[in-house]
Hints:
Layout: H1 6-26, H2 30-40, H3 47-53, H4 57-60, H5 63-85, H6 91-96, E1 99-103, H7 109-117, E2 127-131, H8 139-145, E3 157-160, H9 166-178, E4 187-189, H10 197-208, E5 215-217, H11 225-232, E6 253-255, H12 263-274, E7 283-285, H13 293-307, E8 310-312
Parallel strand pairs: 1-2, 2-3, 3-4, 4-5, 5-6, 6-7, 7-8
Helix pairs in contact: 2-3, 7-8, 8-9, 9-10, 10-11, 11-12, 12-13
Amino acid sequence: xxxxxxxxxxxxxxxxxxxxxxxxxxxxxxxxxxxxxxxxxxxxxxxxxxxxxxxxxxxxxxxxxxxxxxxxxxxxxxxxxxxxxxxxxxxxxxxxxxxxxxxxxxxxxxxxxxxxxxxxxxxxxxxxxxxxxxxxxxxxxxxxxxxxxxxxxxxxxxxxxxxxxxxxxxxxxxxxxxxxxxxxxxxxxxxxxxxxxxxxxxxxxxxxxxxxxxxxxxxxxxxxxxxxxxxxxxxxxxxxxxxxxxxxxxxxxxxxxxxxxxxxxxxxxxxxxxxxxxxxxxxxxxxxxxxxxxxxxxxxxxxxxxxxxxxxxxxxxxx
Length: 319
């Protein structure tokens, strides 16, 4: 008998280890196997789940595993089609992307749904910018429907410029934030998105619970005094049944130009500044609103007196 050398012995040991692991996995119940496979499923990196499923015949053969593999294949194909649509070479490029800026890519409702469902498997993404003038009226509902707790965990910037968000889209975004999506969001730009008072009133409580929000741009929307009041109202009393509200403690820049804010809205804003609701504010843009010059001047004085902030004629270029 020929003795095995060091390399042969190591190879044999590795083979036995793989066999023991395969036997251990095969000994799991069908439900346990499916749970593990589901946890490993990643539409933009499906290989890990497939490797697990192929570890033994007992894992590969059951009909329940076949169904899950078919589902993963369909999700991968949808993700790959989305990547091709936006000009990315592969799912790997999207998986590793730090920033995406998609302008008029004419994404379909299904593609927007796919993007939202990928929110939990894009850990590197930090900036998500959309400019979709041709998007459907329910585009944001589609995009946010799949965003659950912890989705898009590293994203700090979301910009939806001239995209049809509307009041229903603003409500859908608020719901996603309420579920715990975008936990590190710092900059939210919703310029020219057709958001009125109803949408802003729905969105305001969710924005006030974002601990890192430092820039908010709502330029060119139809929101007015009611929407602004909902945003800058003092935090409600603590309630054990309500989610914690951090207010807008870190908000540094607020862009409200070309909205429908009148003198009443300016008074609410001045009151908020007076009560230190916006303690970190450094830049405020109220240009092009229907409020009187006197009302805007009163806000300007509060800005300087309370937090040293400045009002500018137009600061949208900074976004």
